[in-house]
Amino acid sequence: MKRKISSILSLMFILVAITAFNANAETEKSASASVDLMSSYMWRGFELHEDPAIQPSVGITYGSFGMNLWSDYNTETKEATETDLTLNYTFLIDKFSFDAGYIYFGLENATDTQEIYLSAAYDMFLSPTLTVYYDFDEGDGTFIEASIGHNVAVGSDMTLSLGASASYNADSSYSIGAYNGFHSANVSAALSIPVNKEISITPMIAYSTGLSSDAKAAIKTLNTDADSDFVYGGVNLALSF
Questions:
Q1: 66 CB-near residues (< 8 Å, 6+ apart)
Q2: What is the DSSP secondary structure assignment for residue 127, as one 8-state letter?
Q3: pLDDT score of 177 more than 70
Q4: Coil, strand or helix: which one is 225?
Q5: CA within 20 to 30 Å of 63's CA: 19, 27, 90, 158, which one?
Q6: DSSP string computed for 136-164
Q7: What residues pair up with 84 in beta bridges, in sequence order?
Q8: Fold of 2-235
Q9: Alpha carbons 44 and 53: distance in angstroms, whole number
Q10: 111-170, pLDDT tens digit by residue?
Q11: Is 216 within 8 Å of 41 (Cβ atoms)?
Q12: pTM of the entire predicted model
């Protein structure tokens, strides 16, 4: 994995350099860095580890193109468990916004895998969004997630973000088990508190549960407490420029 991560970091450096070189161009560009301090590592209904997690992320956008590098650090074992690279392209058609992308999952204690995805959102109340992930590597299957969300202004400058999602597994076998059926549901609340124009602090809390017997059986195989219902939370520190 270390050689692959080095390649990812090299790609990040090259793209950042390209963005900096074109600093005077008219194309819209941005960069961001953040870190999540989480009570555990949750992913698609799974508690991948129950120990507190530090999850840093850096990203850049150049016009419609974006790139993000994300990692998970287990504070109990004191090791990085995962480093993921996401490349994406966004575009608009009338009231629909689309996001097409590629994800490389670099894992320490499991075989690396890869996904492509397409997400479509409609500009209306609750912003309904449908995302289809296809694992063409180790998972060899499809994972579908539908979500809604709504932002509420709190005071003069804070924003409360409420969200809910439900997912369906279509034979994706990576860490899930090859079955067809509803997988998990998640509800969350997050309060964005701006420190200044570039920095924000966002505490959040969420609840996740399995939606079918197959899903609950799969979720329990990865969780030491043999449960498929989780309450978790944390805080995000973000810098954008």
A1: 59, 60, 86, 87, 88, 89, 90, 101
A2: -
A3: no
A4: coil
A5: 158
A6: -SSS-EEEEEEEEEEEEEETTTEEEEEEE
A7: 70, 105
A8: Porin (2.40.160)
A9: 16
A10: 999 999 999 999 999 999 999 999 999 888 899 999 999 999 998 899 999 999 999 998
A11: no
A12: 0.88
CB 145 within 8 A of CB 192: no
Taking residues 76-99, report their average pLDDT.
96
What tokens does 98 get?
Answer: 């689309």
The distance in angstroms from the start CA to the end CA of the chain is 31
Tokens of 27: 């194309």
pLDDT in tens, 17-75: 555 545 555 778 899 999 999 999 999 999 999 999 999 999 999 999 999 999 999 99
Q: What is the dihedral of CA 218, 147, 51, 203, to 10 degrees?
A: -170
